[in-house]
Amino acid sequence: FASMLKVDGLTPFLVSVKAAAPGYPFYGRLETDPPSAAALSDPMSCLVDPEIAARRQVRVGSVVALGGARLRVAGVLLREPDRSLFSFNMAPRVLVPAAALDKTGLLRFGSRIRHAELLALPPGPDPEREARALKDELERTLGDPYLTVTAYGEAQPSVRETLRRVSSYFLLVALVGLTLGCVGMAASVSLFLRRQADSAAVLRCMGLTGREVARVYGALCLAAGVQGGVLGLLAGGLLSAWGLSLARELLRFDFPVSLAPQPASLARALGAACVLALGVNAAKLRAAARVPPAAALRESAADLPPSRAATILTLLLGLGALFLYAWSQGESPEVARGFALSLAAASGALALLLVLLLRALGAARPLLAAPEAFALRHAVLGLSRRPGRTLTFLFTLSLGVSLLGALQTAHHCLSREILSGRAQNVPDLFLIDVQKSQRPAVETLVRGVASAEPEFAPLIRARLSEVNGAAVAGADMSTLNMEERSRQRLRTREYNLTYKDALNASEKVVAGAFWKPGAEAAQASVEEGFARRAGIKLGDRLTFDVQGRPVEGTVTSLREVSWMSMKPNFFVVMPPAALGAAPQTLIASFRVREPRKTALLEEALAKAAPNVSVIDVGQVLANVSRVTDTLLKALTVLAWFCVGAGLLVLAGTAAMGRAERLEETAILRALGLDSRAIARTELASMGVVSLCAFAASALVSTALGWELARWLEVDYSFDPKALAITALASLLPILLAAGQRRARAQLRT
Which helix (H) or strand (E) holds 355? Predict the structure, then answer.
């Protein structure tokens, strides 16, 4: 509960009091200075926030007055294990033993006090399920609409939502990295099997059947998968240790987690590596099995053209393996299905775009008949001479480039979402209980310390009495299911309403239309999450009880609110014509230029407007900034690790056919071209490849990035870095051609 704390020689100030019974807390521990103060052995002692100790010159051993009790300060409260990093109290915390409450005289009729009963269940095989079951049983048995029962799996929803999105991004990085690995493996194995075509034909001449030849090369692919799986397990162990240390630093809690190898996880990782190693190469293995013995006497075996059925089978096996892996890691079929379908759609769109680009290049050949266009004409002819191989190479390269661009877009969108709660961008001081007559004087004082114009918002207390003419209170909770009971509790709580004619920067309309300034019609704008939980929709007629008088409004818009902006936002907003005359107070939010001026402002307000309370959330914002900095570092490291690995994979992919290009270079030398002409021809060829890859990848990566942002449930925004990474990755063939200049120069006719 909130109360006033009195320190000798100072003006009383607002504090948030928490009274804990013996045994608190069940999990974790209180961190205090000195450490021995956590015991609170003296029933007339207390712990105070560092803010009180620093700003009010309160020391260990000082005596403070809370109500009618005089309490000795036993120490400074550094951390409560059940207090979220992102939550804040309306005032600095004072923690007292439950035995001291009666002495304060503050527990009386009309006191606004919230009671919480904490229950610790005995250890069980599935504690989260058991906690949810007990929660449901308590709700059914007690049937109190004003009682909220929360299982630990539902606690701190904002923190859990942020971490859920971050963990989804980590899973996304893993899936993109795995897909890039599949692309690289498919490219390298395809090149290897193409060079082994003559050997496969010789094996057929020696009496091996096609199935036995496929098993020989399949065993090689399987061995590569096992090696990759083992290396992945070693790297995963190191990443797990780093991730656990990061989580401990992030949440300042020593998780009782063991990093001992889990047999199921090891088997799943090795199984995924082996299945993917065989799955992505299934088409080429089937093609190697079909090499006839007579192919040893001619060059027709060099292409190893896979059948259409084998190619489709390869794609299905690859997508199926990725789906199962995502499902096993994310424990959600929606997540797995979303990534697999997004990847399938991106692959289809990419293949279609590349086919159209190749056809457009083929149609442009007559325009390149001039002698000075020899290099470009040769490059276009080289791409169209072997369309199947060209399309495979371009598709492999473009898919990897698209994934890198989409991953950067997802990283950018998620980072923007997290950055919306950084301390540099949000107010750190709030004023509550400002009377309308006091606003001019308070505003003058605030402008002297605020870094920007303060925002004032009216606050009106009310209860929802009717929805579409039906009374809200009085429902029989025993006849309602869990969702209906939750909705009933939400509807019957007390609300803070406000009125205004324009939205602030932290909110936007997602359905309906916000009213024009000066509107007189009875309207209401409702936050979309609240509307969903309370069962309210557009067109509903809401009636609020404002100190005994009904105020009606039809829901004409739903708003999306960024609560991490720390602006004075509300669930329900109405026009000034509806609520302007209602009894109200004002709240204000602003950011100070210099934190040291906060104490001076509090002293000035205590004289000019003693009823106004100053809420300082600077420590909370510092926690938010620290957490977001750590999360962003983790996201950035993983993203660039994946980008670096992807570029290495794509560099290997771009090197496909190097021997063939050198043979073509030798032929051109034999036909009389000098080294410069050959270099121009090779650069033109790789330039056309890079241009096609970039054109297709830029479109597909943008669409895929938008889909991944939607999957992470964050707003999409265009990221120039994603386009730059796409362009850089698309330049790999040109860089490869430039790097082979010395090898070309050494060729002789």
Answer: helix 333-363
* Cβ proximity of 557 and 512 under 8 Å: yes
Q: Of 336, 322, 299, whose CA–CA distance to 201 is shortest?
A: 299
CA atoms of 276 and 221, how far apart (whole Å): 10
Tokens of 38: 């956590």
Locus of tokens 């060209």: 390
Tokens standing for residue 476: 């029989």
Q: Is 720 exposed, middle or buried (0-12, 13-18, 19+ CB in 10 A)?
A: exposed
Helix axes 210-251, 282-289, angle to 10 degrees: 170
The pLDDT of residue 448 is 81
Q: Do 74 and 96 meet the contact criterion of CB atoms below 8 Å apart? A: no
**Backbone φ and ψ of 5, nearest 5°:** -110, 135
Any bridge partners for residue 592, and if so which?
Answer: 450
Cis peptide before 595 (omega within 30 of 0): no
Read off the DSSP letter of residue 286. H
What is the residue type of 417?
Answer: E
* Rounded Cα distance, 300 and 298, in Å: 6
Closest CA to 636 of 721, 720, 708: 721
pLDDT of residue 715: 77
Looking from the CA of 647 toward its CB, the CA atoms found within 13 Å total 16
* Alpha-carbon gap, residue 607 to 726, rounded angstroms: 61
pLDDT of 297 reads 58
Q: How far apart are CA 536 and CA 534, in angstroms?
A: 6
Distance of CA 524 to the CA centre of its chain: 31
Successive 10-residue mean pLDDT values, the chain, 749 residues: 86 86 84 86 90 82 92 90 64 89 87 87 85 87 77 70 72 76 74 76 83 87 88 85 75 67 81 79 77 65 56 67 65 65 81 84 72 71 68 75 81 72 64 87 85 85 88 66 66 84 87 90 90 88 90 93 76 91 88 72 79 72 64 66 64 58 68 69 76 86 84 79 81 67 51
Q: What is the DSSP string of 85-138?
A: SS---SS-EEEEEGGGHHHHT--STT----------PPP-S-HHHHHHHHHHHH
Q: Is 46 helix (H, G, I), strand (E, B) or coil?
A: strand
The reply to whether omega before 34 is within 30° of 0 (cis) is: yes
Strand 69-79 to 31-33 pairing: antiparallel
Q: How far apart are the first and last CA of the chain?
A: 91
Return all residues near 237 (Cβ < 8 A) that are at least 6 apart.
259, 261
Identify the three-state secondary structure at position 432: strand
Distance CA 729, CA 694 (A): 8
- Give the burial class of 209: count Cβ atoms within 10 A of its Cβ; 0-12 exposed, 13-18 middle, 19 or more buried: exposed
Determine the distance from the C-alpha atom of residue 516 to the mean position of all C-alpha atoms in its chain, rounded to a whole number: 35
The two structure tokens encoding residue 443: 């505003």
3-state SS, residue 664: helix
Smallest CA-to-CA distance from 16 within 90, 67, 104, 112 is with 90
Three-state DSSP class for 533?
A: helix
- Residue partners of 71: CB distance under 8 A and separation at least 6: 44, 45, 46, 63, 64, 65, 96, 100
Quick one: DSSP state of residue 75?
E
Report the distance separating Cα 703 and Cα 349, nearest Å: 10
Which of 343, 339, 353 lies closest to 394 in space, CA to CA? 353
Q: CA-based diameter of the chain, in Å?
A: 105
573 CB neighbour count, 10 Å cutoff: 26
Q: What is the DSSP letter of 256?
A: -
Token digits for 385? 């001479």
CA atoms within 13 A of residue 158's CA, in its CB half-sphere: 14
**Residue 208 to residue 289: CA distance in whole angstroms:** 10
- How far apart CA 48 and CA 263 sit, in angstroms, is 48
